[in-house]
Amino acid sequence: MSGYPPIGSYAFLSDCHTAALVAPDGAVEWMCAPRFDGPSVFARILDRRRGGAWELHVEESFVAERGYLDETLVLRTRWEGAQGSVVVHDFLAMSPAGEAGGMRPVRLLVRWARCERGRAVVRSRVLARPDYGAREARWTGRGEVLEEDSGLILAGAPEPESRTVLREGESLALTLDYTGAAPTGHPGRLLEDTVRSWRAWSARSGYAGIGAREVRHSAIVLRGLLYDEGGGLLAAPTTSLPEWPGGPRNWDYRYVWHRDAALTVLALLRLGHQEEAGGYLECLLRQCGGDGERVPPMAGIDGRPVTEESVLDHLEGYAGSRPVRIGNNASAQHQLDTYGHILDAALAYHEVTGELTGRQTATLWRVVRLARKQWREPDAGIWEVRGAPRAWTYSKLYAWVCFDRAVRLAELLGEDGLPLDEWRAERDSVREDLLAHGYSQEADSFVQSYGSTGADASLLRVPLVGFLDGRDPRVLGTLDHVQSRLGEGGALLHRYDPESTVDGVDGPEGAFLLCSFEMVSALVLAGRTAEARDRFETLCARAEPLGLFAEEMAPDDGSMLGNYPQAFTHLALIEAALNLDASGTTDELHDWAARGG
């Protein structure tokens, strides 16, 4: 890896406005300002020489212990040496706000080192490289506060490089404000407020079932990816971490994908976070308004269109993985499944809360009208292939979901003047079309696209959305087909067979963790609960020590691949755990699946 730490070894910090990744040696190697999708000020994770980082280490010491404080995204690192020991707390500061469990960002990166034994020397070096490493920092000083032209304010040291001697009981607090405001607050108080904020939020959920520790931690990760000003969920806080080292499958994931909608709303609702579910749905529906002929599959975190893809040629990329991209051209694709995810999320939310408004339902009916015009067209599919559009079976499945949820939502609301008979007819037409062309007698399985025999792990969702019962022979055949063609490394699955999929991008990729967890959920509905439990435990055991998952994993050594941490993976983990937990009441679980999850 040419000196690059493993992707899964980074700690994730968030204040729900921006994020930072901290390497095992204590260096902050990724952070964007003034928000998640802003230009980076530290990007060593993408270039060891040009990217920039904030190094912090204790001389003549080693990292003896490293992990999150329980139920938080506060990183605690213990350094041990012959002369002394130091504990460092790294966090993006939060403060309690509003009702219990509410919180707001202070917009301050805090690094607080405290000597707990003997004597120690703490070294800090702030090598900021604003604008994705395009230039060196330009600091001007006043006392122990330094200002940078980009708006960064560093406090606690007279120079970007400092060496501080600490004795037992003494501490050093360094802060970086990324908004141009003067840093305020005692570090102990900032730490206390941040810990209290995270724990109060997590305490809203009373989940104590199967995989409770992993579920609760995944929920905190998801909260860290929810943008505080708009409610949208980032796919990941990074760009261009490779799906295979040295390869070109490097994408910018700092956007909101509508395909995350149903899983996000369901996960938040099932864990007791109704406010965030509502905020996310409102963000989603704002982005679906307008008068365009299609609903784009993704949007910026503020609802604006995604910027066109460009390449940062001056960065070498993680472990030499080029190109380094910002922006994402997938935003211009036609992805039919988007429509079903939106309606699925809306129905789930209204069934639990009853709080959909007339304005929101008007947007939803517009989405249904667009789906009626487009569901017979080929599209780019959930995997956003950059080759020719085709009739993806998964896309047709979610066209069915769109009409099915629209009918059920309209019946629930009792709205007059809606063409319910026409929507029911469309639902039946999609079902007949999918069963006729998306299922292969030869393969004894649902297949990737009409006319193919290729396996595709996205079709594990056939029973999860209630299209067929989980014990239907066609579902069981699909599970076996997917496992035999795409399984590798125990519980891992690839998302599709590269030999039957022309996706327009060269190079290999790792196993896809979303699909690996979705197999767990599908096996539960198939009645193969013991097998599902074994898979779930195997996958959770392959998480890195900090409990974070990327998009993909190398089957041979278990290393994380792709952007990190990945919302999709943590959402699928939560879904799998909750399905396993409900499997004790099989009838109830099958009723839930029949209603669409």
Structure commentary:
The protein is an alpha+beta fold and 597 residues long. The protein has 15 helices and 25 strands. The protein has helices at residues 130-133, 187-202, 212-225, 261-270, 274-286, 337-353, 358-374, 393-413, 420-437, 461-464, 473-486, 513-525, 529-541, 567-582, 586-594, and strands spanning 11-14, 19-22, 28-32, 40-42, 53-58, 61-68, 75-81, 84-96, 103-127, 139-142, 145-148, 153-155, 161-167, 171-177, 256-257, 298-299, 310-311, 325-326, 439-440, 445-446, 487-488, 492-493, 511-512, 552-553, 560-561. The strands form seven sheets. Strands 5, 6, 7, 8, 9, 10, 11, 12, 13 and 14 form a ten-stranded antiparallel β-sheet that branches. The chain has a four-stranded antiparallel β-sheet with strand order 1-2-3-4. Strands 23-24-25 form a three-stranded antiparallel β-sheet. Helix 12 packs parallel to helix 14 (567-582) and helix 13 runs antiparallel to helix 14 (567-582). The radius of gyration is 24 Å and the shape is globular. The two termini are 42 Å apart. The mean pLDDT is 94. One of its GO terms (biological process) is carbohydrate metabolic process. This is GH15 family glucan-1,4-alpha-glucosidase. One of its GO terms (molecular function) is hydrolase activity, hydrolyzing O-glycosyl compounds.
Q: What is the percent of helical residues?
A: 25-40%
Roughly how many Å apart are the termini?
42 Å
What characteristic shape results from the CA principal axes?
Answer: globular
Q: The biggest beta sheet, please? A: 10 strands, antiparallel
Number of helices: 15
Count of strand segments: 25
Rounded Rg: 24 Å
- SS content category: alpha+beta
pLDDT averaged over residues: 94
The amount of beta strand, in percent, is 15-25%
In terms of per-residue confidence, which ranges show pLDDT below 50 for 5 or more consecutive residues? none
